[in-house]
Structures are given as structure tokens and as C-alpha cells.
Amino acid sequence: MKDFHGKVAVITGAGSGIGRSLALQLSKLGADLALGDINLENLSLTRDMLEKSNQVSLHRVDVAEREQMAGFAREVIAEHGHVDILINNAGITLTPTIFEDIPEVDFERVMHVNMWGVYYGIREFLPHLQTRPEAVIVNMSSLAGLVGLYGYSPYAMSKFAIRGLTEALQSELAGTNISLLIVHPGGVKTNIIKNAPDLANDQQRQDAHLEFSRFALLDPETVAAKIISAVRNNKRQLVIGIDARIVNMIRAMFPGRFPGILKTIFSQARFK
């Protein structure tokens, strides 16, 4: 997709971080936007930053809820008439915690938002995308969708699932009007840890955010720009960040020692 002018882009998690940066950059390229987020106040802040000439609609939606995602799709079609780009960006994580210490309710919440949220987005918008001359689905995975990171078992499980679904659909939809891009960024300076559902209070959230920011090497604007470039060039997979590339390389070079190396690296972080 070379030209975004007049295209309608649906972005989940558009209230902050990568989602907001994608909205800002696509708006400058002439796209109309349907922005979804669980936090309507944050969505309003995103809208206030956008180009004023574009059509923009805001939708409060919890991507983990099937009926809300169905309603989201209905609202978007009612307001915009069609959809050309679907960006499944919304996601959450927990602070680094070993598997046996993670309450099941927290594990399930990560799976519901990250995995089922992407599934619901594709399920609800695919019929509309299929009516367009060309359409794109962008699914946000992670470095944790390339390798299973120590302390991030629910996040890794959800992101590997997104990768598997995307690759299956790339095969099924090959030769059609729809292309799919899977994105694997390394650490990005967003509020994802600050908003982790297992943090109990504002002090923990602030401390966790500062600790995470020490390791996150990417900014949302850079990630958004690389995603848009990949869409323009019809890429199928995008790995972003030196940390993602290095970890992937270490696994290839030292497959036997890799789990121990990851444990040494990631067990040093203290988020709460």
C-alpha cells in the first residue's frame, strides 16, 4: 500500500505509545482514522494532536470482549463506510514474574487482551477488508514472540500465538487483496509496564516504569515510522531494535546455552 490518502485505518490501543504515534503519522499521510482504546480520555488526547482535515472517530473498547469488538466494527463502518487498514496494536503485560507465581486471573487477562483481542479484531474486520481493492492487517507481536523471555511467560505465549495466527493467514490469504505484517519490536518506551495489572499502587507503577525505561531502547515514533515503511513496501515481517536482533542472534548461535543466558540477563530486573 503506497498511498494512505483517503484510506481508513483502524488502530487499537491508540490512546498512547505506538498506537498514538501510528495515528499521528498516518494522519499526516492523509489517512482517516478509527481509533480504539479502553481509555477514552487518552483517546481524546490523541485526537487533539491529529491533523484537523482528516475524519477521525473515537471508540472506547476493551479488545478482550468479543461483543465490544463486534460493536466497534459496526460503529466504524457506520461512521467511515469502509476499512482499508487494521492495526491490532492494543496489548498488556505483567511485571517479570516466574510462571508458578503468576495468579491465573492475571495470566488469563494477558491472554484475553493480547491474543483474543487480535483474533476478535481480525474476525470482525476481515469481511470489510475483503471488499477493498487492497487492504492491510498489521499485528503487533514482540521480541517475546520470537523467543520466550524469562519472567514473561503469559506475554510470550500471547505473542507467539499472534505470530502463528499471522503466518497462517499470510498463507491462506496469499494472492488476495489482503496482506499481513507481523511486527516484533524490542523494548519500546511506552506505558505498558506502568499499566501492568499486577501492580498495586502508584508508587509501584512509577518505579516499574523507571526500571523498564532503563532497558527499553526504542521510542514509539521510530517504531511507528518503521511499521508504515514496511506497509508501504509490502513486508511480511518486521523485527525492530538492536535488542531484538541480538537476542535472536544469540539463540541461533548458542541454542543449548540460550535459556540460561536469558535467565542471567532478565532475572536482574526488579520492577516491584
- What are the secondary-structure elements, in order, as H or E? EHEHEHEHEHEHHEHH
Looking at the structure, what is the overall shape? globular
- How far apart the termini lie comes to 43 Å
The CATH first-level class comes to Alpha Beta
The CATH superfamily appears as: NAD(P)-binding Rossmann-like Domain
Which structural category fits the helices and strands?
alpha/beta
Determine Rg (CA atoms, Å).
18 Å
Q: Indicate how many domains the architecture comprises.
A: 1
Q: List low-confidence stretches.
A: none
Bin the helical content. Answer: 40-55%
Defining traits:
single chain, 272 residues, alpha/beta, Rossmann fold, seven-stranded parallel sheet, 7 strands, 48% helix, 14% strand, globular
If you had to describe this structure to a student in words, what would you say it looks like?
The protein is α/β, with parallel strands linked by helices and 272 residues long. The chain has one domain (8-266): NAD(P)-binding Rossmann-like Domain (Rossmann fold, 3-Layer(aba) Sandwich). Helix content is 48%, strand content 14%. Strands 3-2-1-4-5-6-7 form a seven-stranded parallel sheet, with helices on both faces. The mean pLDDT is 92.
